Amino acid sequence: MMKNSDMRAFFVNQGQIDPEKYIRVEYTFESLTQPDLVAAHLCQEMSTAQWKRVDVDEDFRPDFAAKVIALESEEINQPSCPSLAKTTLPDYQQVFRVNVIIAYPYQNFGTKIPNLLTVLCGEGVFHAPFISSIRLMDIHFPDNFLADFQGPQFGISGLRDMLDIYDRPILLGVIKPNVGLPPIPFAELAYQAWLGGLDIAKEDEQMSDAAWSSLADRSKLLGEKRALAEKETGQKKIYLANVTDEINRILPLHDIAVKNGANAVMLNSMTTGISAMRMLRKHSRVPITSHFDLFGAMTQIPFHGVREVVFTKIQRLAGMDIMVYPGFSGRLKTTEEDILASVQACTEQMGNLKTTLPVPAGSQWAGSLETLYNKLQSIDFGIVPGRGVFNHPMGPKGGAVSLRQGWDAVKSGTPIVEYAQGHRELQLAVEMHRS
Amino acid sequence: MMKNSDMRAFFVNQGQIDPEKYIRVEYTFESLTQPDLVAAHLCQEMSTAQWKRVDVDEDFRPDFAAKVIALESEEINQPSCPSLAKTTLPDYQQVFRVNVIIAYPYQNFGTKIPNLLTVLCGEGVFHAPFISSIRLMDIHFPDNFLADFQGPQFGISGLRDMLDIYDRPILLGVIKPNVGLPPIPFAELAYQAWLGGLDIAKEDEQMSDAAWSSLADRSKLLGEKRALAEKETGQKKIYLANVTDEINRILPLHDIAVKNGANAVMLNSMTTGISAMRMLRKHSRVPITSHFDLFGAMTQIPFHGVREVVFTKIQRLAGMDIMVYPGFSGRLKTTEEDILASVQACTEQMGNLKTTLPVPAGSQWAGSLETLYNKLQSIDFGIVPGRGVFNHPMGPKGGAVSLRQGWDAVKSGTPIVEYAQGHRELQLAVEMHRS
């Protein structure tokens, strides 16, 4: 264990540091011994683990150590995961729940996403001694740090300009069936949904450049159908192609898809690395969406891992225009508080970065518009049903019509179920949702 | 809920499928209702969520659905994380612990790592309905799948050839202090450790191409010191440079470091994306190491997330020669069973792929060699102390000597503490470890 004199070097008053030089990081952890000492060990492990050479009079902590600027703790009866506590410290006697705010000097690594994740979510944090579980709760960047990032290219207002829609939420739909359906009928489904009033036809996160549906073939057909749908409806439409692939294939696939008529692209960004999104942002001239694969492994345990809002913020830095993430449904296993924290992270002031359109997703249908509008109290969001549009009894066109009717209901202040009575597509959607 | 007739399409007897077309995936999950039905939903969500178009007589499940090939379950008293169960299904009545083996048709996406992670650890898995927590336990690839991957370029035998060491474990050390120490004294520390008998001087996962220590400056000095150490000792030495950075900087940094004399490189591969390692493997002619940042957020909860062995295997596919990962110490929060599973995943037959050197790491010193040799029953491993070498009272040279003495003790069958009596460096290491 660290000596008391050493411990003090890992604490500082907020007023004593230059806020432009530090990232503020919030953790909640369970400590198996004295909280302030354990917080100091955490800071040590995530920065200057050994702060001097043997037999040299020096100390790297003033400039390079992570430092606690706020700490509160309470003793609790037992750890949230007793088996993990036993592995960590077999003979622990006490457990504390500790909230800390840590100031991290980002000169340690600069303004690079992989290195940021290394210090915030690395060995130093998840394997710090005497900590049985730890959750990265939030992160706040100084403007100096933010200035090195491009952020979203379009943001909410750019997306609205692209679609020429200013008075309602954006209607996305995940084209289904997807896995197994060849490009020709796949493109036809998107076309039908566009005709019905869908704004953005989005490829599923599981879609890829596969032998049974190459992105080249698929995007050509979707691009043609998008042009046709725009002509027939007089409305702007977006085809959102999934370009998730090995790192060296992302930009080539982007180029193929965009040349063929995709006017937005998606990355499953934790599976490629969020840095790949930053690379794509530098290259692309179309909006970028993210899908949340791999997040569940980190975000769902309430006392461990990483709170989703952290990834929302880092992806906004990286250039994400549209944030698809777990929304209001038990299946999505995300609390209302966490969902709304990500909405705020998408839209709040963040240096000079543009905003990101929040799309709290999962198991949606026309009726979800009511929920989303009530929870968010804003029209600046997207909805992204899959089966709710594409498995509609009248097909994707009817499904898309039901979305438009759903919004009409919300706009007129009429409950969905009541409004549905005079609107067949919405009525069928209500019945499908009930069954 | 799915109908019973639909459910059956997600079950198959192992003998009915071509094993070369399927990845076998093992999950353990907690189910809030009927286990077989929930397993079918899991398969549905991770593959063909909607398996037919409206009003079309078709079924994509035979060719494209994930399918359960084995299932066992038992009712348990309560979920491991009750709050998560309540979010998932507020009025749950029963809880089952379920083990399944699922056959996944990899033609769905091909042989690409981000897309593999999408299906195995994506929305379909971590947000499958009626599942309150789920852990990806293991994965088994058919030879057809493996054939598309290069795997390690060197493997254990290639590393041994490089170092000309055939009769003992490989001695790595993490150069410390690291964060804050300028390149000149940093290189001197590595030099001293090499003189003392260290084989591989490794940069910490927090080292980067930073303003206060550019990789260009640092690697030039380290490269020179490596050549000098080889000349003075007559032994082969490795300098392992950390090239973790934004995606587009990884290959340029690799080139700079290798040109300057780095003869191995490291990626913090989950922070860059494992695909970045595959990219690096295609480009590089030196061994590649991985560090386990971000894994703790996914691997530590025993009933949720991803078991480390899965990442071990995927990184071996990607080309990892040396696997640094959490080893035998409470702080590392990893069970002995899981540590040994990764050792096996590094060294077992896996198509025609070369092996990976396992380095179960964390808080190590000379005495850890005894533990490692006893647990692994092999000399095919690495040890990687940081402070155990570089904070040794006699400095890094003495620290490295203590490692050599530690191995001499193991080789002679003498307990470390006993052997230390005649060996000053080891004696001091024992005393430092005790304090």
List keywords for this structure.
homodimer; 435 residues; alpha/beta; Alpha-Beta Plaits; TIM Barrel; 2 domains; eight-stranded parallel beta sheet; five-stranded mixed beta sheet; 21 helices; 13 strands; elongated
Could you please describe the fold and organization of this structure?
The structure is a homodimer of 435-residue chains. Chain A has helices spanning 4-8, 35-45, 61-64, 82-88, 113-121, 123-126, 143-146, 155-163, 183-196, 215-233, 247-259, 269-272, 274-283, 296-299, 308-318, 336-347, 368-376, 387-390, 395-411, 416-420, 424-434; strands at residues 22-31, 67-76, 95-105, 131-140, 170-174, 200-202, 238-242, 264-267, 288-290, 305-306, 322-326, 357-361, 382-383. With 435 residues, chain A is of the alpha/beta class. Chain A folds into two domains: 4-146, RuBisCO large subunit, N-terminal domain (Alpha-Beta Plaits, 2-Layer Sandwich), CATH 3.30.70; 155-434, TIM Barrel (Alpha-Beta Barrel). The first copy, chain A, has an eight-stranded parallel β-sheet with strand order 12-11-9-8-7-6-5-13, sandwiched between helices. Chain A has a five-stranded mixed β-sheet with strand order 2-3-1-4-10. In chain A, β7 (238-242), α11 (247-259) and β8 form a beta-alpha-beta unit. In chain A, α9 runs parallel beside α10 (215-233), α17 packs parallel to α19 and α19 crosses α21. The relative contact order of chain A is 0.11. At the A-B interface, α4, α5, α6, β4 and α11 of A face α4, α5, α6, β4 and α11 of B.
